[in-house]
Design a protein that fits this description.
The chain is mainly beta and 437 residues long. The protein has three domains: 115 residues, Ribbon (Cystine Knot Cytokines, subunit B), CATH 2.10.90; 159 residues, Jelly Rolls; 101 residues, Cystine Knot Cytokines, subunit B. The chain contains six helices and 26 strands. The strands form ten sheets. The chain has a four-stranded antiparallel beta sheet with strand order 9-16-11-14, covered by helices on one side. A four-stranded antiparallel beta sheet has the order 10-15-12-13. A four-stranded mixed beta sheet has the order 18-17-20-21, with no helix packed on it. It is elongated. The protein starts with a helix and ends in a 10-residue tail after the last strand.
Amino acid sequence: MSKIIFSFFAVISQVIAAPPINNCCLDHPQKEVYPTFIGNYDCSQLTDFGKTRCNEVLTGKTCIWKTGRRCKNNELKVCKRIPKYEVHYNKAIDVGKCIGLCKDETTICSPSKYVMEEIDTDISKKVRIIKDCDCENCGVKEEMQMIEIPKGKCFGNCNQKQYNKVCVAGLNDGFDTTNLENSSPSTLLLSGILSQCSAGVQSGFDIFIDNRCFGHTITNCLTRGPCDLKKAILHICIQAAQVSLTNTDSIILGTNGQSLWGRNLGILNGGSWNPGDSMCLDLDLDNLPGGGSILNNIDSIGHLDVVVQDDSAVDFVRLNIQYEKCLDCIPGKSTLNTLYTLNGVQEFEHITDCDCVNATKCHRTEFLQTLYPGTIYEQTHDIGQCIGGCDKGLTCRENKDENKVIQIKTPHGPRELTLINSCFCEKLTWNEHIHKE
């Protein structure tokens, strides 16, 4: 029994004593030095992001994932020279850089020895190269200065003409008969549904007269445009007059003086509509009681007829409409510019034009990009962009299998440019642990 216990503790001791496994992201043996932003890329910054990100960054041969002793972090323990590439006379040159800590905090890790390297036989084409570094009393400390670069930004509301609004007719005054609120039935409504009312038409709101219909046409509320009507809710308050046969009264909705939907008021009031009864209704025009929708009808024609017949008064009507936000203000044209410093070349995009684009469904739309304007490399391409809505759980993305890749000339040498040809709705990928390997 004692041997078993001893063996168990021996195994535990070995596990505890085992050094932790070190992982790191280092420079790839085949890492290119040109363009210089690749040569100067700091692979160690990807250690926390895992193996996949490390091995796939930039060209795929810039960084490599390693495990073991090579991952000891002694980068900053001593002052030393590290490679730093700059472009001089159209060549990538390792001019060197000093980095690391100094024991004496009053000193700074700086170049201690330089050499002048000839680029070619032209005596004027020489570059000073750092050969050694040491802790010196005088050196350069990194400091940044903000530079304003034009970026451009799309601004505006493309849906200003078709906007959500509430249109009201009549006063919400509890059927006050002293306010003289006139209704406005259209000519088509008067010659259509209202012509069938036996004793004529009420003059307006809050009118309690036997056998006369209420009629009103809601106009100047809907707007024609590229966006579909998303929702329309009609709020109406009705009260039965103190007369007989109110139980036969009904509400009718339509367009151009013709009925599209109707319902008995007694059914809408829970089974009865007696003299003096009152109710307020919220009618969804896309899902009316008993089934049916007239949303597309009023969206296409531009108005709504409201009729109540023929022994009931209407206090007021209110139509609440909402439009789809089908247009987005997005970039339509941009320029790709370059900023040259000794730390390398930085590219930045400047948006120069924006357009209102239909974003109802996922599709490809034009995006013109002018590369390196004002240089001999200036060129313009329609690189395309994906925009539009998709069903829940999907996102609008480029179809990479149909992309076109072309070779272009740039100030930094030839490179590839991807042109988007088509877009589709792709399922979003669940990725809870983005850094987990």
